Amino acid sequence: MAYSRISDANEITARYMDSILIKERLIDSVVADTSVELFGTRFSSPVMTPAFSHLKEFNGRELTGLEEYSIAAKNFNILNFVGMMENDMFKRIVDTGAKTVRIVKPYLDNEKVRDQMKYAEDAGAFAIGMDIDHIFGNTGLDVVVGEVMGEQTSDMMRSYIESTKLPFVVKGVLSEEEAVKCAELGAKAIIVSHHHGRLPYAVPPMMVLPGIKKALEGKDVKIIVDCGIASGSDVYKCIALGADAAAVGRSMLPSLEEGGVAGMEKFLKSVNDELRFVMSCTGFATVDAIDDSCLVKI
């Protein structure tokens, strides 16, 4: 077979994920507990929703997809994330009752960044953060839905973090060096992500997780991962490689579009049920106990 070069980071990520196999350990194992504690709050699962933006109403339903998956997150008791939106939309998300992290885009208009972060805190966000992997585009600074993004310095990031009492999450970390920098600036969590393959040949998040975990040892920073997470087995592998939690992404959209809140709840339950099954079959009673001892790379 002729060798074919593939620059698509999503395909590279999928191949890497599928190259990791799982060994079984059954004797003395128990039914696993998938609950986790994050920022002093107990959640039912380390599975999280993605920081999606601009989801409209599906199939003529009254609520937007953003509101529907937020309600499902609340009902399932998992941490909820949302992305680019104006303040009035975020208020609608908060009103669902979901514990929600607002991820703000790195706007060139710095006052908009600060306004959205302050609004989120005042409105009752669980945490806030910034999506740094949307700073640059092919021709310079990125432009998202007509909004120009801006470069973000360490001093700017530190000022955002110091301006809030909420935990601050940096989304788009894909190296040990950047993870350490986020910790030094005061971030309480990072999302290891290549944002659905924006960077050609981007390293799979799962590949850099062990190095990031080691680099952050002794630092109070939670590690979340996304990109290509579609099953409980995927979540298990991410946690075994060093993550504290994992966010599903596009894999949830068919369930959301077709079934709304109920469809999302069914999807989240299926992912969490598979996570529990794999934990039980590998001898890990709790999420905190999971390590890479049952993983085999082929």
Number of helices: 9
Oligomer: single chain
User: How are strands sequenced across the largest beta sheet?
Assistant: 4-15-14-13-12-7-6-5
Shape: globular
Uncertain stretches of 5 or more adjacent residues = none
Report the average pLDDT across residues.
Answer: 97
Helical coverage, percent range: 25-40%
Task: Characterize the largest beta sheet: strand count, sense, and whether it forms a barrel.
Answer: 8 strands, parallel
Strand content: 15-25%
Structural class: alpha/beta
The number of E-state strands comes to 16
Order of helices and strands: HEEEEHEHEHEEEEEHEHEHEHEHE
Distance between the termini: 20 Å
Radius of gyration: 19 Å
Can you give keywords for this protein?
alpha/beta; 298 residues; 16 strands; 9 helices; two-stranded antiparallel ribbon
Quick summary:
The protein has about 300 residues and is an alpha/beta fold. It is built from 9 helices and 16 strands. The strands form 5 sheets. An 8-stranded parallel beta sheet has the order 4-15-14-13-12-7-6-5.
Chart the SSEs and their pairings.
Layout lengths: L8 H10 L1 E3 L13 E3 L2 E3 L3 E2 L16 H12 L3 E3 L4 H8 L5 E5 L5 H14 L3 E5 L4 E2 L2 E2 L1 E2 L2 E2 L5 H9 L5 E6 L2 H10 L3 E4 L12 H11 L6 E4 L6 H9 L4 E3 L5 H29 L13 E3 L1
Parallel strand pairs: 4-15, 5-6, 6-7, 7-12, 12-13, 13-14, 14-15
Antiparallel strand pairs: 1-16, 2-3, 8-9, 10-11
Helix pairs in contact: 2-9, 3-4, 6-7, 8-9
